[in-house]
């Protein structure tokens, strides 16, 4: 399925693809993997790291917690500088733990502080359903009413994205009733990037907290959480970070003080300071920084792949990754615009800084839709995904996608369009 000769022989980025294991067709030819916004592919080095821990478990058993390299006791600690770099924070402000929604609940417990009339939470829509569920249930759990305490700002009629001006206006309008603003750093459906610093500043001017879901942002767009004065953030590691299905997630807390009033961090033994943890005393003394928000011991096997994937980001300055991804997106969009295929509209904003690697297309009724379209694309060697109501999502990850993938996508869409329904 892959062309026998490389149509882009001078593409210097292509050697990087060899660091990944990309799914292939039944004949073994690699597919164009454009689903990294959903689940990133396997980084080759992950095999060795997982096998290393299996071997240690087999050979050492319990002693693995104190083994000389990568002791399980502090297994995720060494990943923090690389993650901090990716989100624009200090290493002590990030921690590797749990999954995204669990971390969101933990940090809502700390940062959602309804008091008097200041109890509303403002979110944007379309929002990832789990975020909305977590927030609505936290409101109810604190005795509030999600039908009045949850404010949702949506796109203008006929559009798919929330304009930052409209977002700001909604924050100002909520004013003193606002306890928290929560937004996807990159929207899961449209791929739109929200200006976190701008929204955080307006939120703080109203006396409220600002948090963000970075599931689609980490490893995808440059982030500067400290500079932007974001109060807290949560992420998963299985999209642009390529950590594997259900990989351990992470969180950021600005200038973290796990014991700060009025809602100290929820407590668990892995958030207790390491030196005295195994004295098994009843009194909680938190680890310094974001580690004080940890509850449980580190899931070694779902953390191991990050040891292979984060170095790839350290090797390549983010500005270069952005340049590469823009070249792929431009190549795709220029040719799609020239083809002017009917019934397919890009809903991702194309301005500078308004998108990351994801392109989302609204698919009209003249096209096959849903699973049928995804199958048609797969039969042409392209892996993408579909989200209701009628959005085709795909992404160009600068570390493993190339101009050949852009070619195949454009030809594939043109072919499906020509073949009609
Ligand atoms: C934007 C967004 N938020 C939250 C989640 C939920 O993540 P988890 O299952 O790790 O809680 C996802 C999962 O894909 C997501 O895309």
Can you put this structure into words, describing what you see?
- The structure is a single chain.
- The longest helix has 22 residues.
- Helix content is 34%, strand content 14%.
- A 7-stranded mixed sheet has the order 4-10-9-8-7-5-6, with helices on both faces. A 4-stranded antiparallel sheet has the order 11-12-15-14, covered by helices on one side.
- It has 2 domains: 120 residues, Aspartate Aminotransferase, domain 1, CATH 3.90.1150; 262 residues, Aspartate Aminotransferase, domain 2 (3-Layer(aba) Sandwich), CATH 3.40.640.10.
- Helix 8 links the parallel strand 7 and strand 8.
- It is α/β, with parallel strands linked by helices and 421 residues long.
- Bound molecules: pyridoxal-5'-phosphate.
- The site of pyridoxal-5'-phosphate (PLP) has 13 residues, from helix 4 and helix 5.
Which terms summarize this structure?
Aspartate Aminotransferase, domain 2; 2 domains; 15 strands; globular; 421 residues; four-stranded antiparallel beta sheet; binds pyridoxal-5'-phosphate; alpha/beta; seven-stranded mixed beta sheet; single chain; Aspartate Aminotransferase, domain 1
């Amino acid at each position: 399925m892959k062309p026998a000769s490389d149509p882009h022989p001078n593409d210097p980025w292509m050697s990087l693809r060899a660091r990944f294991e990309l799914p292939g067709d039944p004949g073994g030819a690699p597919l164009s993997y454009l689903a990294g916004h959903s689940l990133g592919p396997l980084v080759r080095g992950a095999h060795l790291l997982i096998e290393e821990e299996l071997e240690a478990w087999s050979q050492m058993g319990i002693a693995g917690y104190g083994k000389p390299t990568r002791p399980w006791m502090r297994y995720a600690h060494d990943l923090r500088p690389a993650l901090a770099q990716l989100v624009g924070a200090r290493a002590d402000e990030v921690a590797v733990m749990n999954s995204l929604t669990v971390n969101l609940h933990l940090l809502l417990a700390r940062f959602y502080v309804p008091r008097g009339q200041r109890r509303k939470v403002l979110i944007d829509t379309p929002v990832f359903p789990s975020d909305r569920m977590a927030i609505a249930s936290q409101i109810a759990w604190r005795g509030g009413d999600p039908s009045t305490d949850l404010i949702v700002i949506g796109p203008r009629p006929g559009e798919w994205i929330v304009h930052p001006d409209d977002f700001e206006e909604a924050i100002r309008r909520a004013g003193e009733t606002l306890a928290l603003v929560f937004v996807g750093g990159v929207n899961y459906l449209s791929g739109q990037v929200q200006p976190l610093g701008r929204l955080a500043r307006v939120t703080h001017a109203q006396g409220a907290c600002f948090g963000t879901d970075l599931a689609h942002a980490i490893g995808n767009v440059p982030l500067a959480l400290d500079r932007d004065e974001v109060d807290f953030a949560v992420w998963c590691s299985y999209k642009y970070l390529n950590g594997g299905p259900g990989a351990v997630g992470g969180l950021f807390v600005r200038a973290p003080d796990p014991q700060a009033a009025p809602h100290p961090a929820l407590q668990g033994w892995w958030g207790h300071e390491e030196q005295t943890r195994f004295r098994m005393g009843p009194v909680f003394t938190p680890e310094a920084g974001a580690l004080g928000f940890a509850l449980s011991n580190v899931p070694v096997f779902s953390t191991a792949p990050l040891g292979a994937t984060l170095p790839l980001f350290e090797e390549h300055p983010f500005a270069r990754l952005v340049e590469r991804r823009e070249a792929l997106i431009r190549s795709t969009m220029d040719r799609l615009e020239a083809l002017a295929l009917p019934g397919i509209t890009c809903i991702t904003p194309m301005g500078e800084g308004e998108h990351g690697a994801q392109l989302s297309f609204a698919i009209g009724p003249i096209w096959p839709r849903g699973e049928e379209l995804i199958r048609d694309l797969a039969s042409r060697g392209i892996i993408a995904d579909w989200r209701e109501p009628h959005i085709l999502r795909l992404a160009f990850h600068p570390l493993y996608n190339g101009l050949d993938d852009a070619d195949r996508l454009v030809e594939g869409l043109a072919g499906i369009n020509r073949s009609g329904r």
